[in-house]
C-alpha cells in the first residue's frame, strides 16, 4: 500500500484498537503453540522431571513484527502484500502527516524506544483496557507460583517478542539497565517475595497510562509528562557498556587503505607502550582520537571490536543518542574513572555538532584526558561534515567507511551464513552482490532472518527461495525470472 493511499487513524483510540488486534494475533498463536507443546509433553512424559525439562519457545513474532505462524505457512502471500506491522507503520506515518497525534508512536519517537519496548508498553497497557488480557496472561505465565495478577511478567514478554537468545539478552539488559522507560520511571517491575526477577510483573506508571489512553494526546502534554518524571531523583546508572571483542582483522571486509590505517593506529598505540617499557621514555601525548564517518552498517562498530581484540582489551561503548543531556556529566565522570583503552562513542555529533548540549569546557577536558592516556578514542558519525572546524584540531585522523563494493558484497554474503548452517547450491551469490547495494550490517540482518525463517519451517537447508521471501518482506526485489532460469539450467 503506497504511503499516499494509506488511511490515517482518525484518533488515538482507533490506533490503539489496531495495535491490540496485532497483540491479539500474537497471543492466540502463543496459546495455540503452548497447548500443542503441553499436549506433546504430556503424551511422552514419564515423570515430573520430564515435564520440568520441557519448554515451549518462544519468539512468536516474525521478521517484520507480525505473527510468525501465519507468515511461515504461506510465504508467497506474505511476499505479495505488506505485513500487518508494515501497514500499521504506513497508517502511523499518514496520521503524522495529517497532524493526528498518536500517543504511543509519539512516545516511541521521543524516547527512541525499540520495537521490543513498544510491544512491552502495549502488553502492559492491554489489561488496563480489557480484563480479557489478564486471563490470557495467566494462562501463558507458565511458572508454577501462587502469584495472581492481571499484569504480564518480564519472562512472558521476553518469550513472546524475542526470536533468539541474542535478542533475549539484548532486550533484558536494555530493559534492566538503560531503557528510557526506566530512566523516566515510566515502568515498574513489581517483584514478588522469593520469586525470580523474570517473574516480576510489569506495570505502567499512572500518568503514562493516562496519556496513552487520551482522547486527544498532544506533544506538549508528552513533554510535560517527561519533564515531571525527569524531576524525580533516580539512582545514577552508567551508560558505558563493556564487551569482550572476538572480532579479528581477517573478519573485516573493508578497503585495503582503510584497513591498513586502522592497523597502523593500533601499532602506534602499542608503540607508545613499548617505548616506555624498553627505553623508559614517555611521549607527551599518547592517546589517539579517530573520527569514523559512514552510514549505519558500514563496519564502524566491527572495526572497533577488531581494534579492541588486537589490543587484548575490552571495548567500551556508548550511544550518545540514548543518553539524556543532563546525564552527560555523569557519563564523562564514568569515562574518566574507568579510563578505557578503547572507547567508541556512537552518535558523536551530539557532542561535537553545532547544537551540542555539552559544555565546551567539559569537552575540551575530555579530549585533553584522552590524549594524555595510552588510549584510542573512536568517534562515530554518519557524516564528517557535521563536525565544526573548531573540534577538528582534537582529532588525529578522519576515516571514511564507504558502502561496500560489489566485490566486497560478494564476500559479505558468503560470510554472513555460519559454516554450521547447511546452504543449498541454488543460492546465486553473484546476483545478490550485483543487484543489491546493501551495507554489511543489512546483509548480516537479512542472513540471520533467512536462517530463522528456514529453521521455522524445518527446511533441511537454507535456499534461494528462503532468501527471496525474506527480501520480499523488506520490500527488496530481485529479477526472479533470471534466477529461475539459472536454477533450471543447474538442475
Describe this structure in words.
- It is a single chain.
- With 491 residues, the chain is an alpha/beta fold.
- The protein has 3 domains: 3-230, no CATH class; 241-400, P-loop containing nucleotide triphosphate hydrolases (Rossmann fold); 406-490, Helicase, Ruva Protein, domain 3.
- The chain has helices spanning 12-44, 48-52, 68-73, 75-80, 84-97, 103-111, 115-129, 132-140, 154-161, 165-177, 180-183, 206-212, 219-230, 256-279, 300-310, 328-338, 349-352, 360-371, 389-392, 406-415, 429-435, 440-456, 464-473, 480-490, and strands at residues 187-190, 201-204, 241-243, 288-293, 315-319, 342-346, 376-381, 397-400.
- The strands form 2 sheets. The protein has a 6-stranded mixed sheet with strand order 3-5-6-7-4-8. It has a two-stranded antiparallel ribbon with strand order 1-2.
- The chain is globular, with a radius of gyration of 25 Å.
Distance between the termini: 37 Å
Stretches with pLDDT under 50, minimum 5 residues = 1-5, 49-80, 482-491
**Cα-based radius of gyration, to the nearest Å:** 25 Å
Large-scale geometry: globular
Q: What does the average pLDDT come to?
A: 81
Strand order of the largest sheet: 3-5-6-7-4-8
The helix content is 40-55%
Keywords: ATP-binding, Nucleotide-binding
Protein name: ATP-binding protein
Organism: Drouetiella hepatica Uher 2000/2452
GO molecular function: ATP binding; ATP hydrolysis activity
